Amino acid sequence: MAELALVIKSKAQSGKRDAVRALYEEHLAPLAESNEAQEVVVWCDDDQDPDAFVLFELYAERSAFEANAGSPAFGAYMAAAGPLLAGQPEVQMATPRWSTGV
Q1: Cα dist. 55→60, 74 in Å?
Q2: How high is the mean pLDDT in each 10-residue block of the chain (102 residues)?
Q3: What pTM was estimated for this model as a whole?
Q4: With CB atoms 3.0 to 4.6 Å apart as the test, which of 28, 39, 89, 95 could cross-link to 58 if both were Cys?
Q5: 100 assigned to some structural domain
């Protein structure tokens, strides 16, 4: 079972959500795809707000999250995407206790 779950709620500036997702796919998706300790990553477009999105991530180890957060890829993503965001994301960290289908 994963050791860490992240739920990150964020909002792009008006009309910029697709651009932010494209930057995510360029900078962070390859990191996630190659990181066995990052077990699940799901980008979700908010159905109620055309500028909002949610990321859900499961990590086998907290150290894998810390490594991602300190990686050059994350820094490059934030440098490119940061100006397109409408404020700071809301980040919730949790310890998974039960799941199905993962």
Answers
A1: 17, 14
A2: 92 98 97 92 98 97 90 95 97 94 80
A3: 0.91
A4: 39
A5: no
